[in-house]
Design a protein that fits this description.
Blueprint lengths: L2 H32 L5 H34 L7 H34 L5 H48 L1
């Protein structure tokens, strides 16, 4: 991968991380104040779920940052890359579970505070989104399997090269 592509991606990740910290510190505080008429039993979980989703995205960004460093050094096809990929997969699955939690919190909010039931279509849309997020985690899991295959092939090629060097 070209150096300028890695640099551009790192700039995007850095800006996203800065934006996420802004959302965690400023926007969630404003949201907390904005929904002060909602009971704490619902308000706390909603804000905590948003906070945890942002943390999971930050974890993913840091792992991708580390993987980009490995790409730059040419060491991405090693076993040390797996820990970062595994963390990304876990974080994506966590986001999927947190999205489901949002659907539950939304249903409780409307039922307890507003006295209305949430339209089934809204919950279905949120559930569908959670399913799509879980699908992204599965795609990354497939990519991990491809990385494992590439690491094995790289090790085989290194072994064949050393055997060939001995023969020569």
């Amino acid at each position: 991968m070209k150096s300028h592509v890695i640099t551009a991606l790192r700039v995007v990740i850095a800006l996203a991380l800065l934006g996420s910290v802004f959302v965690q510190t400023v926007m969630l505080t404003l949201a907390w104040r904005d929904i002060d008429d909602i009971p704490l039993a619902i308000r706390i979980p909603v804000i905590v779920i948003f906070f945890l989703e942002i943390v999971a995205l930050q974890v993913i960004a840091v792992c991708i940052w580390k993987l980009l460093g490995m790409v730059r050094k040419g060491t991405v096809f090693s076993s040390s890359a797996f820990k970062y990929v595994d963390i990304v997969i876990g974080a994506i699955f966590a986001i999927s579970a947190l999205v489901v939690s949002h659907a539950i919190a939304l249903a409780r909010l409307n039922h307890l505070v507003l006295g209305d039931e949430v339209a089934p279509g809204v919950i279905a849309l949120i559930g569908g989104f959670a399913l799509v997020v879980a699908g992204v985690a599965l795609v990354v899991l497939v990519m991990r399997a491809l990385l494992a295959q590439a690491v094995r092939r790289d090790a085989e090629a290194t072994a064949y090269k050393s055997e060939l060097d001995e023969v020569i």
